[in-house]
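Thread: quick sanity check before group meeting

JM: Hey all, I'm pulling together slides for Thursday and realized we never actually wrote out the predicted structure for the chain we discussed last week. Dropping the sequence here so it's in one place. If anyone has concerns about the input, flag it before I start.
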Amino acid sequence: SAMNPVFQGNGKLCINVLNHEQEEMARHFAGMTGMTMDDRFGLSGWQKGALGQPVLKGALASLEGEISQVQTIGSHLVYLVEIRNITLSQQGHGLIYFKRRFHPVMMEMDVVA
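JM (edit): ok, ran it. Output follows.
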């Protein structure tokens, strides 16, 4: 990934779990639209998270963490991340990529207070 040098340089990252209404953003980050990485992060909807990483507003979940280890497995790098902050949304449904298409995953969310 083009982001590997960035991750390794700052040692932090944020994993944004997109909701079903964020398919366009998913397409941009999957490289389906030809948009550059700078342009992707230049789109509206980003805010700075607790660790200073880009957090996407409206995501189902945002997991911010510090990279504790990087392992090479075959031709891939695997990042082990210690999660430091989790933000959850109470609205929206999941988004998955299956059989070359994005699909919404409708679910009920029971919240226990």
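AS: nice. Strands lie at 12-17, 46-48, 54-56, 61-73, 76-88, 94-98, 101-105. The longest strand covers residues 61-73.
JM: adding both to the slides.
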